[in-house]
Amino acid sequence: MKCLWCFKTEIDVTFIKKAHTIPKSLGGQKYNNNVCDECNKYFGEKGDDKYSIEEALKETFVISRKMLYNPKDGKRKIGEFKSRFFEIKERKGRKRLIIKQSFRFNRQFQQRLCRNFKRGLYKMYFEELNRQKGVGYDNKYDIIRNFARYDRGDLPVIYFERSFGAMILFKREAETPILFFDRMEYLFSNKTFDEIEFLSHVFGFPIGDFNENDFENYMHKSIEIKDGLFKNALIIKSLLDIDFTLKVMND
Ligand SMILES: [Zn+2]
Q1: Centre of ligand 1 from the C-alpha of residue 251, in Å
Q2: Centroid of ligand 1 to alpha carbon of 48 (angstroms)
């Protein structure tokens, strides 16, 4: 066995704990056997910011999960909106996400949170990619390892904003979220960029070294195949760029 993240083998590390690819606290039930206990612990451990990478993911997606959840389908209760970072304001039946007061004027905190969210997204992507497709050991993925596991560098994550609130969900998908790679035709991928759909949100990001030209090319092709279904593509700078409360369902 060889760890997907640190390349260490059973000689140096153990592989005893179940490494959930999608946080268990978010309903994830799949795990990756190629993640060593050290790396698994790293993602679940509180960092300098007093939250873990897993929490940065869970405490944000939990809101979309709740919005998509249909109690008639569910076997498990998934609880009320609760997030360490956000609160929901409701007016005339419309929900709006705001950053909790204690963090609202702390720009640095918000930047770190956005960064850790992106790292969490990559963690989930990479472990699921390896689990579903059996790839990931290639050196081309080092940019993912450096960013997600070792907190080095920065990678852009693009959020595609939907034009309509019509999403296709599997029964109980909100309860047990699934990470999709090629489910829909509007998800674009090439050697250097990939796109995923998770809890109805579509994200795109680099998975290997790229230059400005590659990036422009990717954006152009990706937007082209999304053909009216998405109205906007933006590089995430703040978590409020993401429609976690799924306002689009009201329109
Ligand atoms: Zn490892």
Answers
A1: 44
A2: 20
Report how far residue 169's alpha carbon sits from residue 134's, in angstroms, rounded to the nearest whole number: 25
> 58 CA to middle of ligand 1, Å?
22
Domain boundaries, the chain: 52-250
Task: DSSP for 155-198, please give it.
Answer: ---EEEEESSS-----TTTTTS--EESSSSTT----SSEEEEEE
Instruction: Report CA(13)–ligand 1 centroid distance (Å).
Output: 7
CA of 34 relative to ligand 1 center, distance in Å: 8
Please name which of 133, 174, 169 lies closest in space to residue 28, comparing C-alpha atoms: 174
Predicted confidence band of residue 222 (pLDDT cuts 50, 70, 90)? very high
Q: pTM here? A: 0.93
Distance in Å, CA 10 to ligand 1 centroid:
10
How many C-beta atoms surround the C-beta of residue 88 within 10 A?
A: 17
Distance in angstroms (rounded) separating the CA atoms of residues 141 and 245: 32
Q: What is the pLDDT of residues 76-122, one digit of tens each?
A: 666 667 788 888 888 887 777 888 888 877 889 999 999 999 999 99
Q: What is the dihedral of CA 70, 240, 116, 24, to 10 degrees?
A: -10
Q: Has residue 159 got a pLDDT over 70?
A: yes
Are the C-beta atoms of residues 199 and 62 closer than 8 Å to each other? no
